[in-house]
Design a protein that fits this description.
Layout (H helix, E strand, L loop, with lengths): L1 H35 L2 H7 L6 H21 L1 E5 L15 E5 L24 H7 L4 E2 L1 H13 L32 H5 L10 H8 L2 E8 L16 H13 L2 E8 L14 E6 L8 H9 L12 E2 L13 E2 L5 E3 L12 E4 L8 H10 L5 H4 E3 L10 E11 L2 E10 L8 E7 L12 E7 L8 E9 L5 E3 L5 E4 L2 E8 L5 E9 L3 E3 L37 H4 L10 H6 L41 H7 L4 H9 L4 E2 L10 E2 L13 H5 L11 H6 L3 H18 L3 E2 L23 H17 L3 E7 L12 E4 L2 H8 L1 H8 L5 E4 L3 E2 L2 E2 L4 H11 L5 E3 L10 H7 L7 H6 L4 H10 L4 H26 L1
Parallel strand pairs: 2-3, 2-4, 4-5, 5-6, 10-26, 24-25, 25-27, 26-28, 27-30
Antiparallel strand pairs: 1-6, 7-11, 8-9, 12-13, 13-16, 14-15, 14-19, 17-18, 18-21, 19-20, 22-23, 28-29
Helix pairs in contact: 3-9, 3-18, 4-9, 14-26, 15-25, 15-26, 18-19, 19-21, 25-26
């Protein structure tokens, strides 16, 4: 008995000890969550009801989402005018829905822009409620059961929930969902009358709609094989298309798919691309199907017949004959898990610029076999006639007047597309088709005619010459302006002549009017090997053959670039006398509100930042993860900056750091916005995001993303706008302008040449010539800065040549600030990889580290690194100079947002 009591007492002590330990652990976790970090506040804010301002912003944003989808979805094909489908309350059209994506639709995708899409409107709900259609419940249940359990059954069941993309980050199994096996279509046991799935569907309706989709996300790639039909999808297409004469194909993918199969199935009469439709974009799908909305979207990339027939294909990653990636471009002599490369040997011939130029210059090239749908393609339920009424050249400005007439019998909108075809001497590479101006028309009644005028400065026709003049050059010769229906089909042309060469350099004809200083070479070390695609169309060039064995051996210069050595003050030519004052006490303290409206180059900013001590200076530059640091004594607020190109929203990463649960509407993917070809809608989206930001208390937004759709393979393509820099840049500029006008700092990203996911977080060396860098990859950013007025930029993970983009002085200082006149600040991408050196960032002209580790630790990380160099007598002068410059840039940007809100 005593022994049992002793044992019981011992157990009690153990239990008490465990209990105390448990309490201590819980207490520590709570202390960490509520004191060290703001995760606790974020958690509690989840239970706070929306304010009236937030509700109004949310409602307005939903309307904007539908406007984007109304004009952004692209009707690619509509044989025999199958669409729109006539339906009414008295006689509803019945539709058979096929495809797993018809019930598990992609509304968004994974990564930094992930949002919870559980409340997004399902395709079937939109078709019923908005489109006034009836749907075959047997088919819906079939796909519900198959997706949820893998069973082939038509038994009634509840629909699956929309998958929240914040839950599927990094899950490659969401890229392609399985479709019904071939055996399911011959199964005669599913119905009491022993009919097959197809027989039952035909009894229900003579209309079938197939939904095909592909997912995406950060750290994901889609190989050419992934972008072709799977075996099960081939069976689906064959079974449905062989049985039905009226088939509608809906493409739920941001990545271009290989659609060569369409020519084998004439019963697929209509093809409608919806990208990722966002929270309520499926309502637009229903409205287009029933004719309530007349589609006016246009493609933003080429849709080739073979997903591998573009010259960038083999220079993305090495492929086998089946279209599978077999090499990730890792340097064999580089350290393991670091040192990758990608070669942009197609030069300027990206997307339609390659296909159209080759068609125009190579008589052996069969364009019709190579292309299914060109860039800028899209159909309407009405018809339009467009023509160039006049062209006038005066004072180095070309004015083009275009007439548009709605010649059909339905109200609709059209897109005006003007392309430049410059003279080609062989000295500078030039595509024969270059989008130079575009415009979405107003809504036009049948029979209505409108005239639109475009002013195009000569400098917009110039090409960048990196070999000889090292400047933009307008060559002598005839320049043709083509009015086109898309990148391929010419409607009218006019030609003007340039009689004298213009070299936009400081030593010759001066800079372009849009530049503060003339552009000159900044990326010489990115050239690597000067073997880039030319109009010779040499099939043995690196553009078509891909990397050679020697390319997999990194040079000593490349290997040494993996490690950055911080220069000393002596090496930079600085002495102690150059040390600026800091931690100053002024006779009258300057508060940040005193700096509103003060120009960045005003000496008053030097006085203001001289008040900051080293802890504050390094804090401003070193603690930038989803926020900018508060300095209460000087009236500097804590500013919150959530992520996301498809929403302004806290997520599982940013929410706990910011301590806020402000979740905005999920907009359609940026490709859908660009497919509107409507700059007014882009501006509307920006203002809509700005309204949401004001409701949530956000001051910044890690968006828009404007890298180029160089190939269809990038899993992050859904975040980007187009393969064309003019279209991407002007649409992004509209978004930026709208948000900026509402006092939001837009962080245009990822600056620059971040066109691949694999290896980019592990030192990806990007090789290109400077003409392609400037004309293709920098152009969207240039327009977002110059036309949109963005005061924030997010740099990228990759190297450009031998220098990390986030520490590239040529990019961040010489191009961005000195040439383009940018006076905002530069933030790194997630600063958690070894090649991203915070001191290199500072010395190159970067301003803030997105230091996620510091945020999660509840304190300082890179800030302490900078503090060490600021206190080191060998580096203190250059470090403090750089820190004060960064603080000026950051704090000036904050005051600019205040000025916008006045």
């Amino acid at each position: 008995m005593n022994k049992e009591k002793r044992m019981s007492k011992k157990k009690r002590h153990v239990l008490i000890g465990v209990g105390i330990s448990f309490v201590l652990i819980i207490a520590a976790l709570l202390y960490y969550a509520f004191v060290i970090t703001t995760a606790g506040q974020w958690f509690l804010s989840k239970f706070t009801p929306d304010t009236e301002q937030q509700q109004v912003a949310f409602s307005s944003a939903l309307e904007t989402t539908e406007l984007i989808a109304d004009e952004g979805f692209v009707l690619m094909k509509n044989d025999d005018n199958l669409l729109p489908l006539s339906t009414s309350e008295n006689k509803k059209t019945k539709i058979n829905l096929f495809g797993t994506r018809s019930v598990v639709t992609l509304f968004n995708s994974g990564g930094s822009t992930a949002t919870n899409v559980e409340s997004a409107i399902k395709v079937e709900d939109a078709l019923r409620d908005e489109g006034n259609f009836e749907l075959n419940d047997n088919l819906l249940n079939l796909y519900y059961n198959f997706y949820k359990t893998g069973d082939i059954s038509t038994e009634q069941t509840t629909p699956p929930k929309n998958r929240s993309d914040s839950e599927i980050l990094g899950e490659s199994n969401n890229l392609i969902l399985p479709e019904l096996p071939a055996s399911a279509f011959s199964d005669e046991s599913l119905f009491e009358d022993n009919k097959t799935i197809i027989q039952n569907a035909k009894d229900y309706s003579d209309v079938a709609m197939i939904v095909l989709g592909r997912g995406g996300g950060e750290m994901q790639e889609l190989s050419p094989k992934d972008l072709r039909l799977t075996n099960e999808e081939e069976v689906l297409i064959e079974e449905v298309s062989s049985a039905f004469d009226k088939v509608i194909l809906v493409i739920n993918s941001a990545n271009v798919l290989q659609l060569d199969f369409l020519e084998n199935y004439p019963s697929i009469k209509s093809v409608l691309w919806i990208g990722y439709p966002g929270e309520s974009g499926t309502k637009s799908l229903a409205r287009i199907l029933n004719g309530t909305v007349n589609p006016s979207g246009r493609t933003v990339a080429m849709w080739p017949s073979d997903i591998m027939n573009n010259p960038a294909a083999l220079n993305y990653m090495e492929l086998n004959d089946e279209g599978e990636f077999i090499s990730d471009g890792h340097y064999e002599n580089a350290p393991e898990e670091t040192g990758y490369f990608v070669q942009l040997h197609e030069g300027i011939y990206v997307g339609y610029k390659y296909y159209e130029t080759r068609h125009n210059t190579d008589s052996s090239y069969n364009y019709q076999e190579e292309v299914v749908y060109p860039f800028g393609h899209g159909l309407s339920y009405t018809t339009f006639e467009k023509d160039i009424l006049a062209i006038n050249v005066e004072d180095d400005i070309v004015t083009v007047r275009v007439s548009v007439e709605n010649t059909g019998d339905v109200v609709g909108k059209d897109v005006i597309q003007l392309y430049a075809n410059p003279p080609y001497s062989g000295d500078i590479e030039k595509a024969s088709a270059n989008l130079i101006r575009f415009l979405k028309t107003n809504e036009m009644e049948p029979g209505q005619s409108d005239v639109y005028s475009f002013d195009i400065p000569f400098e917009d026709f110039a090409s960048y010459d990196y070999k000889n003049e090292e400047a933009y050059v307008l060559e002598v010769g005839n320049y043709t302006i083509d009015l086109k229906d898309n990148s391929h089909d010419v409607l009218a042309s006019e030609t003007f002549n340039v009689g004298n060469e213009v070299v936009y350099s400081e030593s010759k004809d001066g800079s372009r009017t849009s530049d503060v200083a003339a552009a000159t070479n900044q990326f010489a070390d990115a050239l690597h090997i000067d073997d880039y695609l030319t109009r010779a169309w040499d099939e043995n060039s690196r553009a078509f053959t891909g990397p050679q064995p020697d390319d997999y051996i990194a040079s000593e210069e490349v290997l040494s670039a993996l490690n950055y050595e911080v220069p000393t003050d002596e090496e930079l030519g600085l002495a102690e006398s150059d040390l600026p004052p800091y931690n100053q006490t002024l006779d009258e303290t300057l508060m940040l509100e005193d700096m509103v409206g003060v120009s960045l180059d005003d000496p008053k900013w030097d006085t203001f930042v001289s008040q900051l001590d080293l802890e504050e200076l390094t804090g401003v530059s070193g603690t930038g993860a989803y926020q900018l640091m508060e300095i209460e004594r000087l009236g500097v607020p804590k500013t919150l900056n959530p992520d996301g190109t498809m929403a302004i929203a806290s997520n599982i990463y940013s929410g706990p750091i910011m301590g806020v649960e402000g979740v905005g509407v999920t907009y359609p993917s940026p490709m859908v916005l660009a497919s509107t070809w409507n700059k007014d809608i882009a501006y509307l989206m920006g203002t809509s995001v700005g309204n949401e930001a004001q409701g949530f208390g956000y001051s910044g937004w890690y968006a828009p993303a404007m890298n180029i759709l160089r190939t269809p393979y990038n899993g992050r393509n859904f975040e980007y706008y187009s393969e064309d820099g003019t279209l991407a840049g002007e649409i992004a500029a509209g978004v930026v302008k709208g948000a900026t006008d509402k006092g939001v700092i837009t962080y245009v990203k990822h600056f620059a040449l971040n066109e691949r996911e694999t290896g980019v977080r592990s030192s990806l060396f990007t090789w290109s010539n400077e003409q392609a860098i400037r004309e293709i990859y920098l152009k969207p950013f240039e327009k977002a800065i110059k036309e949109g007025g963005s005061i924030g930029v997010m740099s990228s993970f990759n190297f450009i040549g031998q220098t990390w983009a986030g520490g590239h002085e040529g990019l961040l200082t010489n191009v961005l600030r000195n040439e383009w006149g940018f006076d905002g600040f530069v933030l790194t991408d997630a600063h958690m990889y070894p090649h991203m050196n915070v001191m290199q960032m500072l010395h190159a002209g970067g301003d803030v580290s997105l230091d996620t580790m510091a945020a999660w630790q509840g304190g300082r990380n890179h800030a302490d690194t900078m503090l060490e160099f600021a206190e080191d007598e060998n580096t203190n002068v250059s470090t403090i100079i750089a820190l004060q410059k960064a603080s000026k840039n950051v704090l000036h940007a904050i005051t600019e947002t205040w000025k916008m809100q006045e």
